Each structure stands twice: as structure tokens, then as C-alpha cells.
Inverse folding.
């Protein structure tokens, strides 16, 4: 069944498993393909069949770390407090609210009812209109095409209309019955902002904005003070924003902040009759500027916070009395409070290496902000920070019912030297008494793409490895933004090999420091992180004990040559466009995991896919697994599990997905001899 595809230069690309792509995609109905995937799933089940006791034991461990009955810290918004709750045994949340100052909670949305009868369920964005009408979006097959519906919260009749083919959070215009939503193209690109008025025909919904560039995705939100609608559009290196007052959404054309130009990214919010703009126009790590409301163009930008090499300004939120700024430096998050008068102070947290971020803060006129904090050994904690007193108050720390004693674990920040001389941070956690004579096993993770840094974070799943003597590490490789925006740029496009080399160099450092030896490192990654796993499997297979690749982006060359696929045009600024750029073609071909599988030994490999995945299409992992089996020259197992009713995120439900985690852990333990 070998097939071939052509590259732009009319040379042939060997693609023997091209037939696994259903020509009717996104509908997959070809019986041969479905039978192939089901056979793979059956092989996956047969692998775990003799080890059911191990899987069930791990599942019991994982479930034992989940608080059966839990609830969120209430969030105040427009006269109400909002909270979600889990009841014992439930897969999905129930959402409640109450008027501030009262004790009577009312159930306003029940995910359990919405999910009933569906193999998959995801609640997308939701928003309440002035306390009276809820707009909410649901997806029941994992293809991330959400249906937007409405529910009266006052006892009136529910608006009957349903709007399909949407994505993102619906946005109510304050004081009106008008809601904004994002519409998708057939290729799954958010390209159009529409406005819908309740109890009217959806076919009459006017268009607020439409993006013609097939590589740009559109988003819409309100400014923090809710005075402006902000429409953002962009790809992975260029952005553009337009604004329109919430009082004139349909009667005034949106005002452009700054015209798009390649490589310029900026983000807009509003406070005190001025726009605040985070921009990389003159600083690779971004700077914050302000502009007058009636003339926000670049010529009028005035600097508020300068760009700095040592700190990456990631985001900001303007409140009535201060600006909350999120920074990143040395693979650690920081939060800084800036007053409008020019003073500033950093919020202190218990550990030097941590992950911290602003949590849900919907109101503008506040003097207390909600934050989220965690580290490799500290479970996630929700804090309230009072600005006037500078007091940090814990509101809720994740409870681990089966018990957790942090004194049993040690966490460190290591620094490896990459092959080009750059310092490469590694975050590691291990049980007390972990050997440093090379006899230990290490689980190593990285992502390394899109500037999405992986910070030191807590994981209850990780405890199953730590408690069996493993160390667990995160390699902060280039392609993420752990060391600033330039760290991201150093891992994309022509610099892509830095990401893969960094991962291998991090592994070599762990060996040199005595944490482990070659062949005792278990690796994992997902999506673009799965691409990384595929490359390092080809390049340094002797280092790895096992590999797990979740929905891996491994057929990079073929995907980037196919502009009919959902994400391809948007992805060109990240990977390069091999259709028009010969250098990009050769670079992608040099690392694309599927195209570089070799007749060499590979470690045991577990791969997952989602039949309805619009981000990494199911045939990428399927083709890769088929080629690995046909090419490699070792007896090690390669497993493929395709979720036939789900997408990129795998199974839904808080317990259902734990079985997949238990299987992954069982695979690692079985293949490293730790199953007992």
C-alpha cells in the first residue's frame, strides 16, 4: 500500500502509509482505516490484559489523590459569587451562584446533565449577561466545534436558539441582550466575530469583524473595565487589535490600534480613558506603553514599563488602582504590582522556583487580587493578595485525601550546558534518599514550542513514580519562554534543532551528575512536545528506557506541505513554509519524526491519538507507529491507542482520563521492571 507525495521541487517523498488519511476528513468513514485503528486499540488492550491488577492498582492510587467532594473558591462578579463543585464520584462539575451577602446558592448549570449520554463532553466558554442570561458552549465529540446555547437565570423562558460551529468564550455586551461569538471556517479557523441578539434568527447575526488571512486566528474579549470590546487577530509571530466601545458595538466601526507588520506582537487593554499595550516593538522581552483613547496609534505610545533583558513581561491586567504584571525570569514566574503613579513592588512567594499566575479576577474596582501558586513539591494553592497591606492569604490548597508529606521529597534547579554553550535549566524532584550513583530511573519531560514554557509545577500523578523511586525532571528547552521571549525565538524556525539538542543535552547532564545512566530515562511529551519525543527517539534512542507520545505532531513535513489542513497556514511562522521556502523544506525534512525513522533499536513506545482531533490529525501518530514497526530492528513493543470518540485532549471527565494515566504509568513501570 505504499504511496508517494511530491514536494515543491517535484522530488518524491516516501510516504508508504499515506492511505491512512481518510479523504473525507474530518469525517472518517473508510472501513479499512477504521479497522486498522480498532486493531491497534485491540493490540493495546491485549498488552495491558495480563497486567489488569497493576493498572487497577495505579488507578486506585490516582483516584485516592482526588478530593471526591471539592469546590472552588468563590469568585465575585457583578453582585454575585460564583463557584463550581464536584460531588463524590461525579466526572463533571456543577456550577452555583448566590447574591453577595446571602447564603443561598442556586445551581445554574449542571455539566453532569449536559454530559449524560455522551462518550465525550467539554464545557467551553460561558458568560452571564448582567446576572440574567447564561451563554454557554458545549462539545460532545472532541472536534472543538462548540454549540452555543442560552439559559434564563430569572425564571423567564430560555432563548431557544442554538449557534453551532463556534469556539472560544461568548462575550456579553454590558447592559444589553447582545452577545458576541467566534465562528469557525470549515478548516477549523476562528475567523469571524458575530453579534447575536436574543430571540432573533441566527442567520441575521451581523459581522463585527472578519479575518481574510488564512494564517490568522481571531479572538474577542472585553477590556478589564468592560468599556471596550477588543478584537485580536494574529499568528505565532504577528498580531493586530481593534477596539470598539461597548456602547457603540454595532453603530461604530472598530478602531485599529496598530497595523500588523511581520514580527510585531502586541496585546491591548483599557483603563482610565487610555489603552495599555504590551508590545515587542522595541524590546524582545516586551515593554508596556499607554496611548490616548481617541488616538491609540503607535505614534502616540508612551512607555510605562521599559523592556528588560533579565525579565520577560508576559501579561498584564489593569485594575482601577493598579496594574498587575506577570513576568518570567530564570524559569520562574514573578508577579509585580505597579501603581499608576509609578511605584511598584514584587509579591513574595514561599519558594524561589515556582509557577504563579493571576487567577480569575473579573472585576475592575478591587484592592484584592486572586492568584494561583505551585511548585514541584507544593500543591496548587489559591491566594488572595491585598494590595494596600501587601498581605498574601491562602484561600485553598489542593487536598490529597490519600496523604502527602512534602518532607519526603527534594526539589532542585540544575543547570546543564547545552552543546552550543548556553545554560540550560532543569527542574527536578526526587524522593528523599534518591541515589546519585547512576542507578536511579528518571522521568524527563519537555514541551519546547510556541513560547509555551513549562514551569516547575505540582502533579499528583507524578507521585506514583516518585513513590517507586523515580526522579522526575522538566527540561526547560528552547522553544519555550522559560528564560524570556528570546528563549522561544532560539527554538523556532531555523533554530528548531536547538529544542531537540537541548533535550538530549539535559539527559546527558542528568547522567553526568549521577542521577541516572543511559537507558534508564523515561521520556514523555504531547502534541508539539510529541514532535520533540519523535525526534530524540530517532537521534538518541540508546538514552531512553521508554517513551510516551500523546497526540504527537510527527508527520511535520507532509502536514506543513498541505495548506488544506486546519492549522497549517497558521503554523508556518512557527516551523517555516516548505511550500515556498526551500531552506524551510530541507530543515523540516531533517527532523520530521515520521520521515526520519531508521532501522535501529528503539525503546518501548506508547502513542495516543484522537479520531476527532483538529490539531494533530489522527493519521500522524497512526502513520508513525506503522513506520516504526516496519523499520526498527528490535523486539520492543510499540502501542497505539486512538480515542475513537474524542480529540486532542483525550477522554473527558475527571476520573475517566485517570485510567489513561494509569495505563501510561503501568507501561513505564512494566518496561523498566518496577511493576512490583
Amino acid at each position: 500500500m505504499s504511496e508517494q507525495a511530491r514536494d515543491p521541487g517535484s522530488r518524491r517523498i516516501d510516504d508508504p502509509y499515506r492511505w491512512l488519511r481518510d479523504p473525507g476528513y474530518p469525517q472518517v468513514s473508510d472501513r479499512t482505516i477504521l479497522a486498522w485503528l480498532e486493531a491497534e486499540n485491540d493490540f493495546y488492550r491485549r498488552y495491558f490484559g495480563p497486567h489488569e491488577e497493576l493498572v487497577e492498582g495505579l488507578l486506585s492510587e490516582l483516584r485516592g489523590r482526588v478530593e471526591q467532594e471539592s469546590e472552588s473558591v468563590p469568585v465575585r462578579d457583578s453582585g454575585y459569587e460564583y463557584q463550581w463543585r464536584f460531588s463524590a464520584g461525579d466526572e463533571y462539575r456543577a456550577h452555583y451562584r448566590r447574591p453577595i451577602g446571602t447564603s443561598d446558592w442556586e445551581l445554574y448549570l449542571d455539566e453532569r446533565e449536559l454530559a449524560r449520554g455522551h462518550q465525550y463532553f467539554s464545557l467551553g466558554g460561558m458568560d452571564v449577561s448582567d446576572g440574567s442570561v447564561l451563554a454557554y458552549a458545549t462539545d460532545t465529540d472532541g472536534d472543538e466545534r462548540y454549540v452555543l446555547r442560552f439559559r434564563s437565570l430569572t425564571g423567564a423562558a430560555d432563548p431557544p436558539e442554538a449557534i453551532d460551529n463556534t469556539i472560544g468564550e461568548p462575550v456579553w455586551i454590558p447592559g444589553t441582550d447582545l452577545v458576541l461569538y467566534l465562528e469557525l471556517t470549515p478548516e477549523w479557523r476562528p475567523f469571524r466575530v458575530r453579534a447575536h441578539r436574543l430571540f432573533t434568527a441566527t442567520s441575521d447575526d451581523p459581522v463585527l469583524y472578519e479575518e481574510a488571512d488564512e494564517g490568522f486566528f481571531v479572538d474577542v474579549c472585553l477590556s478589564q473595565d468592560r468599556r471596550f470590546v477588543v478584537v485580536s487577530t494574529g499568528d505565532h509571530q504577528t498580531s493586530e487589535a481593534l477596539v470598539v466601545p461597548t456602547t457603540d458595538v454595532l453603530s461604530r466601526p472598530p478602531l485599529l490600534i496598530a497595523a500588523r507588520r511581520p514580527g510585531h506582537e502586541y496585546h491591548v487593554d483599557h483603563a482610565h480613558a487610555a489603552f495599555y499595550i504590551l508590545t515587542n516593538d522595541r524590546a524582545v522581552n516586551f515593554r508596556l506603553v499607554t496611548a490616548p483613547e481617541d488616538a491609540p496609534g503607535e505614534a502616540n505610545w508612551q512607555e510605562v514599563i521599559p523592556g528588560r533583558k533579565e525579565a520577560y513581561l508576559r501579561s498584564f491586567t489593569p485594575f482601577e488602582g493598579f496594574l498587575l504584571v506577570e513576568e518570567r525570569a530564570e524559569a520562574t514566574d514573578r508577579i509585580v504590582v505597579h501603581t499608576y503613579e509609578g511605584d511598584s513592588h514584587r509579591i513574595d512567594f514561599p519558594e524561589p522556583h515556582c509557577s504563579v499566575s493571576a487567577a480569575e479576577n473579573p472585576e475592575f474596582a478591587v484592592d484584592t487580587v486572586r492568584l494561583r501558586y505551585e511548585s514541584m513539591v507544593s500543591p496548587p494553592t489559591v491566594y488572595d493578595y491585598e494590595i494596600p497591606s501587601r498581605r498574601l492569604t491562602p484561600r485553598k490548597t489542593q487536598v490529597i485525601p490519600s496523604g502527602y508529606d512534602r518532607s519526603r521529597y527534594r526539589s532542585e534547579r540544575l543547570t546543564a550546558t547545552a552543546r552550543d554553550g548556553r545554560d540550560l535549566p532543569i527542574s527536578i524532584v526526587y524522593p528523599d534518599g534518591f541515589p546519585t550513583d547512576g542507578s536511579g530511573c528518571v522521568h524527563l519531560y519537555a514541551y519546547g514550542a510556541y513560547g509555551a514554557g513549562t514551569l516547575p509545577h505540582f502533579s499528583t500523578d507524578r507521585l506514583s513514580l516518585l513513590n517507586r523511586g523515580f526522579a522526575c525532571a522538566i527540561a526547560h528547552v528552547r522553544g519555550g519562554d522559560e528564560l524570556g521571549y528570546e528563549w522561544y525565538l532560539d527554538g523556532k524556525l531555523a533554530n528548531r534543532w536547538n529544542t531537540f539538542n537541548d533535550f538530549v543535552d539535559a539527559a546527558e547532564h542528568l547522567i553526568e551528575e549521577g542521577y541516572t545512566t543511559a537507558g534508564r530515562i523515561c521520556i514523555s511529551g504531547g502534541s508539539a512536545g510529541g514532535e520533540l519525543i519523535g525526534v530524540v527517539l530517532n537521534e538518541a534512542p540508546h538514552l531512553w528506557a521508554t517513551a510516551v507520545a500523546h497526540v504527537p505532531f510527527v508527520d511535520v513535513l507532509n502536514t506543513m506541505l498541505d495548506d488544506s489542513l486546519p492549522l497549517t497556514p497558521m503554523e508556518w511562522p512557527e516551523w517555516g513554509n516548505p511550500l515556498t521556502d526551500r531552506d524551510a523544506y530541507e530543515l523540516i525534512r531533517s527532523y520530521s519524526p515520521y520521515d526520519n525513522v531508521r532501522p535501529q533499536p528503539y525503546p518501548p513506545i506508547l502513542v495516543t491519538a484522537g479520531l476527532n482531533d483538529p490539531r494533530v490529525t489522527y493519521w500522524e501518530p497512526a502513520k508513525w507507529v506503522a513506520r516504526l514497526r516496519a523499520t526498527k530492528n528490535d523486539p520492543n513493543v510499540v502501542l497505539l491507542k486512538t480515542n475513537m470518540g474524542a480529540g486532542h485532549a483525550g477522554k473527558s471527565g475527571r476520573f475517566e482520563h485517570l485510567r489513561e494515566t494509569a495505563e501510561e504509568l503501568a507501561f513505564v513501570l512494566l518496561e523498566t521492571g518496577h511493576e512490583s
